[in-house]
Amino acid sequence: MSATPWTGDVEEWLSVYSGTEASAAVLATIRPFEAGEVFSGHDVMLSVQTYLVKLGSEGHGGVPEALAFAEQTWLASPHTPGEDPAQEWRNGLIGAVQKYGGAPRATHSVTRDSREATGWEQQDLRDVVQGLIDGTRTRLRPTVGRTSVGQALFYAARVNGLAGASGDGKSWTALHTCAQELADGNVAFYIDYEDSSDGIVTRLLQLGVEPEAILNRFVYLNPDTSLGDAELARLLALVAERAPTVVIVDSTGEALAAEGINPNADEEVALWFQRVARAIAKLGPAVVVLDHMSKSADGGLWPIGSQRKRAAISGAQYIQEVLGDAGFSEGKAGQARLKCAKDRPGTYFKGQVVANLRIAPTSGHGTGNLRGSVLAELESIVRVPEISNDDRDSLERLAERERQRFAEGLNTARVLEFVKAGNGTSKRRLEEAFVGVSGRSAKSRVAKDGQKALGREKARALIEQAVAEGLVHWTGNGYAEGTALVRGEADE
């Protein structure tokens, strides 16, 4: 949601946006007030006004009506004697409309006698095509979590992931990313299910973050209960108001546990990502969800739990791992590597080691000088060089051959046919069906379905893709045909 100003008055804005059916986001914002909740203060009022006005400028319906309902709730809320709540509301609404009330984009526009855009309308691609051709519109690149050569790890307005075993430094990478954004004058959010404010602030100070930046532009949340509709509405309103460039969720496993969600239940995990992580990302920040994974001999590239975690990543997913004795601790330098497990926009390829996180205590460490006592750097392993057109064409042909080679045999209908036949009900058995060899020589390996054996990595990719396409889903006891997603959910 960008800050597009409105040049008219408030009444004109309310008139233009009135008469449309309320969207789900608008209804979620006022639902707590419908349930009897009141405003707890002036700042909450401003957050709700700002969020609703931004929703209106994005084409969401029902905003003027929601504002009217919220105003009545505000007037009925407790106030300090001598305050003028009606004037406070008026002043806040004028400010929100003037700053954020610009006209909606064409693809999200609404009319008074029709439903708001749902995403099922045909999109006008002329600006996209022309912009990519003439260079006024650039290909999506990661911009958050910069490495030593200026490249970055995480995509804005997308859900990104960082997974690793306990003690491999995921939180250090996340906090180093926050420190970079704070140093640039931006706002950073940290939703922390695992640590405490003491631990997080200590590490930010060790990384050299100015105390004023922490107090003014670092938003820290430490929830210990589930995220109900009222809390989610307040969270989204706060994100819309503060406009952070990065939002860290530490960690996915604990967030799911707080909601009572089974981490292996595809439909429950998918709904959480849709309701929380993607809803935040749609407001503009790079969302980075941290997750756990167990050490494995085969060097797995995905965190533990439901395969829906993979499909929910709309940006990039990395696996962070300390190798050998390179672990770091209080007073000991070390490093961890970050390997790409998925990059939907395609900046990095699967399995590529993109960066090393280096952590080292400084000479002032342990002397009582907390600030700047730890040095952190995301050392780039890859660099995108300037190349000639001829070289670029050659590399593209090579990349296409590699894609074709990897895609060979990745026909998701194989998975559906195997499940229909009543085979491969367990995750391991289904995977082994496409890895295993059926009495042939190693030169002409054949899987149990009579087609080419894929190897473990490609077999996992095949099953993952079949789940993403909705051909099969995990029931908790085995695979079954079709999708288990709740109605209305969509995966990018």
Q: In a few lines, what is going on in this structure?
A:
The chain is α/β, with parallel strands linked by helices and 492 residues long. It is built from 17 helices and 13 strands. Helices cover 40% and strands 14% of the residues.
Descriptive overview:
- The protein is 40% helix and 14% strand.
- β12 and β13 form a beta hairpin.
- The protein is an alpha/beta fold and 492 residues long.
- The model is unreliable at 105-117, 439-444 and 485-492 (pLDDT under 50).
- It has 3 domains: 10-108, no CATH class; 144-380, P-loop containing nucleotide triphosphate hydrolases (Rossmann fold); 389-481, no CATH class.
- The protein contains 17 helices and 13 strands.
- The protein has helices at 10-17, 24-34, 42-57, 63-76, 85-100, 126-134, 170-183, 197-206, 211-217, 229-242, 252-258, 266-281, 308-312, 389-407, 413-420, 427-435, 456-468, and strands spanning 144-146, 152-154, 159-164, 188-192, 218-221, 246-250, 286-292, 316-321, 334-343, 353-361, 374-380, 472-474, 479-481.
- A 9-stranded mixed beta sheet has the order 5-4-6-7-3-8-9-10-11.
The H-and-E topology, N to C, reads as HHHHHHEEEHEHHEHEHHEHEEEEHHHHEE
Could you estimate the helical fraction of the residues in percent? 25-40%
Strand order of the largest sheet: 5-4-6-7-3-8-9-10-11
Please name the CATH architecture of the largest domain.
3-Layer(aba) Sandwich
Estimate what percentage of residues fall within beta strands: 5-15%
- CATH class descriptor name of the largest domain: Alpha Beta
Q: What's the pLDDT, averaged over the residues?
A: 80
Report the radius of gyration as a whole number of Å.
Answer: 25 Å
**Structural class, from helix and strand content?**
alpha/beta
Measure the end-to-end span. Answer: 19 Å
Number of helices: 17
Oligomer: single chain
Shape: globular
Give me the CATH fold name of the largest domain: Rossmann fold
Major beta-sheet overview: 9 strands, mixed
CATH superfamily of the largest domain: P-loop containing nucleotide triphosphate hydrolases
Total individual domains: 3
